[in-house]
Amino acid sequence: MPKFKRNSLMCLYLLGLSVFLFLDAGSGFCREWSAEKISLLPDSSFALVEIEKGKKIRHCPHHDAQGTLDEEQLIYVLGNFDSEIWVDQANREIAEKHLTQHYDKFMTKAMQDGLRQPININQANLAELVTLPRVGPVLAVRIIKYRESVATFTGIEDIKKVEGIGSATFNAIRFYIDVN
What we know:
mainly alpha, two-stranded parallel ribbon
């Protein structure tokens, strides 16, 4: 293929993609999904889709393009749920109920599997962190954000530096975590 034609096709692709992304409305919070990936998801991948002034606002993506539940994304969305902006507050409750049903199924299975060994809090993902006693999606997201933006944990006591983890939570998880 001639270089000019190849460059023209690439420019058209990038222009089309940027227009598609620009016209796409808000799509909730995502941890590791790119804006492009989110824009390509069907509406069924989201907990709820609102319409405001003829524009879609897609909230809380948690299924991939094939409809498979992404547990990490589900936990991340729940951990940031209070930051989501809603057109109609009644829709907030509908979305929260939908996400909570998925989360409850995930946690039922996770609790049946049980913890096999202590979790390394410097490497644990969201799905591992929520299996700790007294740690839900909000604290799990805070733990990951802390270690990504502030510092890794040098000892298990360092986890108390994360907002929301006091003595009671630390005492509940201390035998289930390590830093090695």
